[in-house]
Amino acid sequence: MHKTNPASIIETTIDFVKQTLANAEGGHDWFHIERVYKNALHINKEEKANHLIVALGALLHDIADYKFHNGDESVGPAVARKFLSQLQVDEKVISHVEKIIMNISFKGGNIEKDFHSLELDVVQDADRLDALGAIGIARTFNYGGFKGRALYDPAITPKLQMSKEEYKNSTAPTINHFYEKLLLLKDRMNTPTGRKMADERHVFMENFLSQFYAEWNGEK
What we know:
This is HD domain-containing protein. Residues 29-132 form the HD domain. The chain has one domain: Orthogonal Bundle (Hypothetical protein af1432). By secondary structure, it is mainly α. The chain is built from ten helices and no strands. It has helices at residues 6-20, 30-47, 51-60, 75-86, 91-103, 118-129, 133-146, 164-169, 174-180, 192-216. α1 (6-20) packs parallel to α3 (51-60) and α3 crosses α6 (118-129).
């Protein structure tokens, strides 16, 4: 199959991702991808990064998330490369998309990226935005339920400094994840547009937590 037109490549990729993630966990399904894709396009109106690479990076960033493949981080890039190669996409574009997938994830927040590009900055911000605000809260509890985690346990305090492996293997209550990841994202955004959007969603999460603790303690 030969797809040289960027719009056609993107359209074919959308169809592929929809089919591949048809039965995915609710926080990492096609609708997550679609939101990240829309966020990325919105941010890129200001950043002016390569449109095709941003689009493909956003659409394929979770095509095989390591959390659902026994922690194997090589599956996603390999699936993306195979698919894009079948479309005869330019090798430079394929390699760039692979690197975006390899470097986009949070993984405890203390891992230095070994690749940098404006396209990665845009897609990473777009993905992180979907972990914030109302959607971020919904996804966090959805994933916690999927993994059978407690909502909250006051006796289990959040671990703010975790290695990559500790983060990947954590079984802490869902509320802890706010402190271990979600509330940290605001200050780790890459682009001005991403930072502005993150600030608004961060405030929403802080208000949610205040209400949560008040209800937990029977104060409201």
